[in-house]
Amino acid sequence: MTQLRRFAQVDVFTAQPLKGNALAVVIDGGGLSDDEMAAFARWTNLSETTFLLPPTDPAADYRVRIFTPGGELPFAGHPTLGSAHAFLASGGDAKKPGEVVQQCAIGLVRVKRDGTRLAFAAPPLKRSGPVGAAEREQAIASLRIAPEALLDLVWVDNGPGWMVARLVDAASVLALQPDFIAMQGLKLGVVGAHPAGGECQFEVRAFVPDLGIPEDPVTGSLNAGLALWLQQAGLAGDRYVAAQGAALGRAGRVHVQRDAEATWIGGDVTPLIHGQVRL
């Protein structure tokens, strides 16, 4: 049945409007079919659209379903922060002070307040280690780089299926002009280090042509898997800031912090639209 539902649109991983990754959130998502959710996500044409539902796990505060224009995801990072923000801003009552527990297809994800920001605990990797020869050849071809320019190519899959390529520096990452036809079938992140002493330690880009998003502006799930790998490999410290989105005119900032509990992936959330949608 068509009805008016509470709706919000927020900008994630930025404190400056229009510089992060936009997220549409249907706060009253109950009663919509899979096809209706997918159709609305195609209509918004954003990287992700989420639908908040009552949890089925008693430990969770809400349940979320996450759709891209090309289909549903089991987990994604910027929708996690944006959905948690929308849940709280709309009067959602978390069971624990200072923490929200989100239920999604990969299970429960903790979201905590980190000062003025929200931060989620990076989920464990479902697949890690070096990528096989066939995927390596495809990644090199689709990034249009020489084989020797690829320092590492590893799985950092925490649900969506990410692999990540490490290049020599941030400038090499920003210079990429990928071949998205050659990239079909891959969810490919790229990372390179900035010179020491700057605001950001790494530059990140994320390519997902199969989901109708050739390049994602700022990507929480990729940065979460990437952080676990970088820290385990000794390539990053307990705290760092990653930049993403510059190639698209954005200025996303992902704040990573590792403590005794988890590696936390944090960012600002800026609300832009609040109202109702007829679905």
Describe the structure.
The protein has an 18-stranded mixed β-sheet that branches. It folds into two domains: 4-121 and 266-278, Roll (Diaminopimelate Epimerase, Chain A, domain 1), CATH 3.10.310.10; 127-262, Diaminopimelate Epimerase, Chain A, domain 1 (Roll), CATH 3.10.310.10. Strand 7 (107-114) and strand 8 form a beta hairpin. With 279 residues, it is α+β, with helices and mostly antiparallel strands. Helix 2 (77-89) crosses helix 5. The chain has helices at residues 34-44, 77-89, 133-143, 170-174, 220-232; strands at 4-12, 21-26, 48-53, 62-68, 71-73, 99-104, 107-114, 117-121, 127-130, 152-157, 163-166, 188-193, 202-208, 213-216, 239-244, 252-258, 263-267, 269-278.
